[in-house]
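Appendix C: a fully annotated inverse folding record. The material below is reproduced so that readers can follow the format used throughout the book. The structure is listed first as tokens, followed by the designed sequence.
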């Protein structure tokens, strides 16, 4: 009888735990920057001086802009590498939570024609993935041989040359400047996919970096970012049985 009660309590606890995990995971994070105090959730990181041609510093701030009231804005022209062979500069990292599988979307307004994109699985300047796009013909002598305009998905592997490994490139694609843009980006099972408002898409895959922060990266770009919506999609697939979800959670915690 006593054993039965313990088993029953354990089962109840297990069900409650699964419910809490799934509920928490399904909640969307919405960031509209209307409250300037929300800047506390972000960390702004510039590349090390040895990797910068324009020392900056970056000037991230929340201010009124052309998107939807207040937005996150960066107004400096910070760029690197020193020899301008690789698009680097500054990061805005959302530090409230780490993510493994997720969707993110945001409104974007580019004041210039230079580099901008999303970073994920971010642990440091030398460990993250990114998708980056540029209209200009830079880098002039690119370390990976591919000049702009382009969209690229890359994996950062070092704080020294060549900095990034190329995962995928879409050459000759530009974005519209001085007008509202919209990005949708997804990471699922090591597959990455960016879809833009103009239906331009870049896909890539890699499984080495599993988890980390999400953020924005800029190269010599001044831009506004607003209405960011992040959904954690890890372990929330309702088609999977609870046992599968439980196995995933255990794997995640190991
Ligand atoms: Ca806003
Ligand atoms: Ca510029």
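Designed amino acids, in order:
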């Amino acid at each position: 009888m006593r054993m039965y009660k313990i088993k029953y309590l354990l089962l109840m606890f297990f069900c409650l735990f699964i419910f809490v995990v799934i509920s928490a995971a399904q909640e969307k994070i919405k960031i509209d920057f209307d409250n300037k105090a929300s800047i506390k959730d972000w960390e702004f990181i510039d590349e090390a001086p040895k990797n910068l041609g324009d020392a900056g510093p970056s000037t991230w701030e929340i201010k009124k802009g052309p998107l939807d009231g207040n937005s996150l804005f960066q107004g400096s022209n910070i760029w690197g590498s020193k020899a301008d062979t690789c698009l680097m500069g500054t990061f805005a990292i959302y530090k409230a939570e780490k993510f493994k599988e997720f969707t993110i979307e945001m409104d974007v307004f580019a004041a210039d024609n230079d580099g901008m994109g999303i970073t994920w699985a971010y642990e440091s300047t030398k460990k993250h993935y990114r998708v980056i796009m540029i209209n200009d013909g830079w880098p002039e002598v690119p370390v990976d041989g591919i000049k702009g305009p382009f969209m690229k998905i890359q994996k950062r592997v070092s704080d020294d040359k060549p900095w990034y490994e190329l995962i995928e490139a879409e050459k000759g694609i530009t974005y519209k400047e001085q007008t509202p843009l919209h990005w949708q980006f997804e990471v699922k099972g090591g597959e990455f996919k960016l879809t833009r408002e103009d239906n331009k898409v870049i896909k890539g895959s890699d499984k080495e970096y599993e988890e980390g922060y999400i953020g924005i990266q800029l190269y010599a770009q001044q831009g506004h970012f607003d209405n960011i919506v992040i959904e954690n999609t890890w372990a929330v697939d309702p088609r999977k049985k609870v046992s599968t979800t439980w196995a995933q959670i255990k794997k995640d915690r190991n």
